[in-house]
Amino acid sequence: MKTAPFLKPGFFERDVLSVAHDLIGVELVWRGCSGIIVETEAYAAEDDEACHTFSRPGAREFVRLMPPGAAYVYLNYGMYWLFNLLVKGGGRDGLVLVRALEPRLGVEQMMQRRNKKCVHDLCSGPGKTGMALGVTGGHHGTRMAGRGRPEDCGLRPSGMRPVVVTDIRVGISRAVDRPWRFLAANHPHVSVPHGRVRLP
């Protein structure tokens, strides 16, 4: 079976909400491992208090200088590296957080990194996903599309066409009511099932 080609930068040169929606069902390939994206969150570079660009000059510089599809990686709670993708050049620039994957390749390696045996729990959250893939701060800025993309990293269509539902974002205290979380409907690998997020 022929492998689908990796996504090109143009995929990320659209509105951040469209990209976050369309990443559901896409395979994220990362250094010998991969998984189908089943949950994302969109963060707009402008007028979104929950986005890093609202309070972090470094994040604003990243959006300004880096190409569409670049990985924005940051440490959350001093413990977990979270993996985001830069979207720019469309209706609304921003960042898309990859919240959950359905593991596909390199499952044994993911299990070792997380010291877990339950596949459903390996990547059912952004911190878990980063740990399972072996993402670190050194991967900040990795090109995931176009020129400079490492051969063993990228995103490609998986052939999976899930029904996508929207919900509010998880674990934030500002702009809490925006329905900017996208999920594969009724999927067992998502971090928080649809309709279960509680407002702070």
Write the layout of secondary structure elements.
Blueprint: H1 16-22, E1 26-30, E2 33-44, H2 57-65, E3 71-76, E4 80-87, E5 94-105, H3 107-114, H4 119-122, H5 126-133, E6 153-157, E7 164-167, E8 181-184
Antiparallel strand pairs: 1-2, 1-6, 2-5, 2-8, 3-4, 4-5, 7-8
Helix pairs in contact: 3-5
How would you sum up this structure, described in words?
- The chain has 200 residues and is α+β, with helices and mostly antiparallel strands.
- It has a single domain (9-184), classed as Roll (3-methyladenine DNA Glycosylase, Chain A), CATH 3.10.300.10.
- It has five helices and eight strands.
- Strands 1, 2, 3, 4, 5, 6, 7 and 8 form an eight-stranded antiparallel beta sheet that branches.
- Strand 4 and strand 5 (94-105) form a beta hairpin.
- It is globular and about 40 Å long.
- The mean pLDDT is 96.
Annotation keywords:
200 residues, alpha+beta, 3-methyladenine DNA Glycosylase, Chain A, eight-stranded antiparallel beta sheet, 28% strand, globular
